[in-house]
Amino acid sequence: MADKEVYDDAVEERVINEEYKIWKKNTPFLYDLVMTHALEWPSLTVQWLPDVNRIWRFWISEWKDRD
User: What region holds the Histone-binding protein RBBP4-like N-terminal domain (predicted)?
Assistant: First the structure.
């Protein structure tokens, strides 16, 4: 039973990776701007900050369970 679960997890991860590759390839057609960066914790909020200069600044909020 454990072998089947390991196999199922590996198949699911492979499918997710393949879907991500397809999405990443198609992002120029879907979005004006895409920036990818792996965070330690999921971000619940992203806000673009106004700036006088032509520099892009934004604020990312991370949420961490304290348990």
Answer: 18-52
Domain annotation covers residue 67: no
H or E element at residue 60: strand 57-62
Contacts 24+ apart (CB under 8 A), 15-24: none
- Please tell me the distance from the alpha carbon of residue 36 to that of residue 23, in angstroms, as a whole number: 12
Distance CA 13, CA 8 (A): 9
42 lies in some domain = yes
For residue range 25-59, list pLDDT tens digits in order: 998 888 887 777 777 877 777 777 776 666 666 66
